[in-house]
Amino acid sequence: MPKLLLSLLFVTFSNLALAMASTSAVKPPNILLVVLDDLGYTDLGSYGSEIATPNLDKLAMGGTRYTNFYTAPTCSPTRAMLLTGADSHLVGLGNMHEELSPNQKGKPGYEGHLNTRAANLAEVLKRSGYNTYMTGKWHLGLKEEHSPKARGFEKSYALLQGGAGHFDDLGLFGGPAKYREDGKSVTLPEDFYSTRFFTEKMMNYIEADRAQDKPFFAYLAYTAVHWPIQAPKASIDKYRGRYDKGYDQLLTDRIHGAIAKGVLPEGSEPVPGAPESRPWSQLTAQERKVEARKMEIYSAMMDDVDIYMGKLVDYLKSIGEYDNTIIFFMSDNGAEGHDLDHGLTEVKPWVEECCNNSYDNMGKADSYLLVGANWARASAGAVKHYKGFTTEGGIKAPAFLAYPGLKAKSKVDSRFIQAIDVMPTLLELAGIPVPGPRFAGREVLPMTGQSFLSESSSQTIDAGWELMGKRGYRYGDWKLVHLPKPYGNGKWQLYNLAQDPGEQTDLAASNPSILSDMIGRWQAYADKNGVILPDWVSGY
Fold first, then answer.
1. Whether the predicted pLDDT of 63 surpasses 80
2. CA-based nearest residue to 86, from 433, 330, 445
3. Is 75 marked active-site?
4. Is 355 assigned a catalytic role?
5. Which residue in 89, 97, 139, 146 is the catalytic one?
């Protein structure tokens, strides 16, 4: 038989074998990545909360809850790391677009949008045969060429900025919020409610492509529970009177609840609040009424997220995809503790003109409120500070993995895990190799994140943080923190988290050699990742 004919027959039989193998192979798992905005550590029932989150709790308790999951201090840097497995200072979000200092603008890693130096999760999965969808908060680029469509998402409906009204396009700092669908500017529908809309839009995307019989990657980035806190009246009424005992009592209750749920160790205690904080007992009756209403609205927002997550899970079950869907759920940073009098004072005059914050109007579309530091302290639990800080309250967040196809060995995982570890973990679960050093015709950075599927307990904790001049480094049990004035004393502080998880006792003076070593480690991290300290101190 001629060699050419033999070759043709070999190719034909090889292709047939591949086709038969592909039809008999198990369908790759779907991936549902759910990110909440500013959710505090104890805000889920499975983490100690009184808020009704039964759907999320069922997922969390049936999967693995992570008790030492770390993020960046704020949203867009976390999202950049989440989608690339690389440090935010390398992939365009060394600082948030809104907070770039003059000496950072135009520098590599500080583009203010997700750059192309790394292969991102959506484009990797798309090239691996996945349908890719995104709904909710993007915050990784305002222009069309930086939109989800340009970064690998086939279908998307995205809020471009860091937050917005939950019933309309009320912006955060004046001017309307901007949205893009599949890269093109759009206006919101009249019946918009963020949590419902983003969930239903995601289900519509999945449903429209079901006939393709391809796995999907669904990135559902809720804008809840980010300020302004707003929710339907019926949702808020469910919590009327629930917080009349105040934030001090709630803090105690949340810590006890978190201990009972196994996500805080026995003996965990509250840490002091912000200097401007006032005990609940010192508030007037009217102040208590207003404060309690804020938390009622916040809880209603979280309750609604749970309801619509339940609808999404029911939908996946109805189409036979739930058992083959990996669900990773997380918050993008610690609880939000700023308000119009602390950290956001520059927008207060605009809010007084645009919005009605009277008691009867609280939570409606034209109100503009934040829960503030005291309720955030309760949400955060037994840690120091809140969103925006490199102390534990800013960078420690709730997270869980639920996947019926994965038999979890541990229901509560206390290992140190970071947002940059999520992408390599999801790729491993999907059986997809880590990209690099070239991807899609370009050189890409190696992922520094590591899959956390292994149950190994020998991991050395070794990680750094920097945002808006606030710095931190963790090596083993030691934690280095530097907060510029007025947020701190402007000096390096040293804590032993094994003995002092609340970061209350500064050991810098008594441990000069450890302090020196830790500063050296932070500097090495900064050099490796191109950190540029800002030449101004942000108000946030």
1. yes
2. 445
3. yes
4. no
5. 139
